[in-house]
Design a protein that fits this description.
The protein contains twelve helices and ten strands. It is an alpha+beta fold. The protein has a domain of 80 residues: ATP:guanido phosphotransferase, N-terminal domain (Transferase Creatine Kinase, Chain A, domain 1), CATH 1.10.135.10. The strands form two sheets. It has an eight-stranded antiparallel β-sheet with strand order 2-3-4-5-1-8-10-9. β6 and β7 form a beta hairpin. The longest helix is centred in the last third of the chain and has 20 residues. The protein is globular. The structure holds arginine. The site of arginine has 10 residues, from loops.
Length: 363
């Protein structure tokens, strides 16, 4: 794409898709003022939002230092998404001390004792480019590093389990049937080559090479390898006790960190991720709740989305990103902000938000 084509495309998108944060904050003067190699780099970062005008964010970093290098363009988008006003510096602090608060939904209402909960963090290794800029060899090398780390966890009393690869010819390779079953069980990630946002960013390239998942024996601790970020580390449980699940993730994450090269982090942006929506804590904590009244039995998410937004929560259908509500109004709720909020703040926001929505539902 030429300079003029990029500018014209973004003008058109800004008109038609005001929700596209990349187009909204695209700074023509800044873009024109860059030298040619930098402009090419930035064009790759924003390609997904240009080719997919309906993007919500519309950009993916290709290298960990992109956020510093292109801060004049990316910071306004980041502030907009995470709700960080211009007067405050972009900075990330961490707090994993689950003993500071109790967030047990079952204590609010017995009916919330059995919700399905999940928390994941995105992590990237500082020794590779981000997934959008990796070669096939690098994807496989990263998977080999991860597989060696999992080998050390295999027999662990708490986190022991098995690595399942979908890389053709891998010693850990699983067959198509098992892959489909794991996707159906909401453990494994879907075929990325069907996602046009990831395709235009180059993140799904070389599918399925370098991709796989570690799963603990109890199937409550999972690590995705080679999806939108190098690693997505998650804990999932049924119950209502968020503390227990966050604690499990904290310990598993520490174990893994000791077995791998350093993660890419920054004092401003926290954990560096492909998508600017995941910076900071890199954390998405969610639970599945049945809200038949607030969703008109799952037919209409508009009201619950509005209410949730004022609580700092985003609502998705229970089938994941871009899906509709399930039967009985089953929805997935999660705190939207990940940057500028600590891990514990995310936990409390999810708990408080879920309690508030439940009160509206049962009023
Ligand atoms: N690139 C897509 C968009 O801008 C997805 C953004 C958030 N989701 C994600 N999986 N990173 O709408």
């Amino acid at each position: 794409m030429t300079l003029d084509q990029v500018i014209a495309a973004n003008r058109a998108t800004r008109q038609k898709h005001p929700e596209n944060l990349m187009a909204r904050h695209f700074d023509e003067d800044y873009f024109r003022g860059l030298d040619e190699p930098s402009r090419q780099r930035l064009t790759r970062i924003i390609a997904s939002g240009i080719e997919n005008p309906d993007s919500q964010m519309g950009a993916y970093a290709m290298n960990p230092d992109d956020y510093d290098k292109f801060a004049p363009m990316l910071d306004p988008m980041i502030r907009d998404f995470h709700g960080l006003p211009v007067e405050t510096a972009i900075a990330q602090q961490h707090d994993w001390d689950t003993s500071s608060t109790s967030c047990d939904l079952g204590a609010i209402d017995r009916r919330l004792k059995d919700v399905s909960m999940r928390v994941r963090v995105a992590r990237n290794l500082s020794t590779f480019p981000l997934p959008g800029a990796m070669s096939k060899e690098q994807r496989v090398a990263l998977e080999d590093l991860a597989a060696a780390a999992f080998e050390n966890l295999r027999e662990d009393a708490l986190f022991g389990g098995r690595y399942l690869s979908i890389t053709p010819g891998s010693p850990h390779e699983i067959d198509a049937e098992e892959y489909d079953r794991r996707v159906g069980a909401h453990q494994m990630f879907k075929d990325m080559s069907g996602d046009s946002y990831l395709n235009t960013a180059g993140i799904s390239a070389d599918w399925p090479h370098g991709r796989g998942m570690y799963v603990s024996k109890a199937e409550d601790f999972l690590v995705w390898v080679g999806e939108e970020d190098h690693l997505r580390i998650m804990a999932m449980q049924r119950g209502g006790n968020l503390n227990a699940m966050f604690e499990r993730l904290r310990i598993g994450l520490e174990r893994l960190q000791d077995l791998l090269p350093a993660f890419a982090t920054s004092p401003s942006y926290g954990n560096v991720t492909s998508c600017p929506t995941n910076l900071g804590a890199g954390m998405r904590a969610s639970l599945h709740m049945k809200l038949p009244k607030l969703t008109s039995n799952g037919h209409d998410l508009a009201r619950v989305k509005r209410e949730a937004k004022t609580l700092g929560l985003a609502v998705r259908g229970a089938g994941g990103e871009h899906s509709d509500a399930g039967q009985d109004g089953l929805v997935d709720i999660s705190p939207s902000a990940r940057l500028g909020v600590t891990e514990m703040k995310i936990m409390r926001r999810l708990y408080g938000g879920a309690a508030a929505l439940w009160e509206m539902e049962t009023a």
